[in-house]
# Entry
Amino acid sequence: MVKKLSILLFSLFILQTGGAGAADLQSIQAGDVAVFFPASLKPAAKEVLYLYPEIKANMEAVFKWKLKGRPSVLLIKTRESFIKMIGNPLVVAYAAPERNLIVIDYSKMLKHPFSLGTTLKHELSHLLLHQYIDKKNFPRWLDEGLCQWASDGIGEVIMDPKRSFLNRASLSGKFIPLRHLETKFPHDRERLLLAYEESKSFVIYLVGQFGTKGIHRFLNQMRNGETVETAVQKAFSTPFDLLERKWHHSLKKKMPWFTLLSYNLYEILFTLMAIITVFAFIRFRFKKRDYKDDDDLDD
# Structure
């Protein structure tokens, strides 16, 4: 009865959000997790059941917190159905903590850098963190940054591996202030990707400066209801604004020379062409003068 009710609830969920294949929805579950899927994705659903215990244990070890309840994982077969449901063409997975639900676009799980395991770990991190940190005090950038860090740097958005918007921001100084990323991320593609990059980079910076023990102190402050600014001050003995400035400075310091060169390539080429043009003009003037002097001598 419970199993049939769960299937019905998920079918209604898919129908309400415009998903496809609700009539074919099946489920399998094993202790700690339930997986809902169209019939053709049964092997993938079994893979979720196989991967889940290790991923859960690994994630709980990272955060030192236990995941409560039994999460549900909904696998979507096609990219079109997933986009219709979620509404964002850059996202490949989605966590709904209030439902204890993870929705995954399985069509993207076979393409680098995404995999079912890393994506599941990322979204499970969202569920776990929201069980312990009040949504009102949990900035979006911190949520995304922690989950990317926990899932080995893999996020839930489609990034261009050959293009870093964070490097451009480091070079120009045009970062998105983290306070502007507390409740939501930008809608336009470039600034959305920059927001994800910034979130990940700042959390990794904190780990590098204060270690995982420092992160745990910080998270426990957040768990106790502190704001980010207060939690940072108590855990790291440094004002939040100062940490953000130090992070910006660290990004500029470690940017390699060839990255700087690549981002200024057009300006460098333009300058070189201008110098070559001036040099050629000077040579031409000297040659013209020498030619005129030779003519005067002949006369």
The chain has three domains: 1-132, 162-258, 264-299.
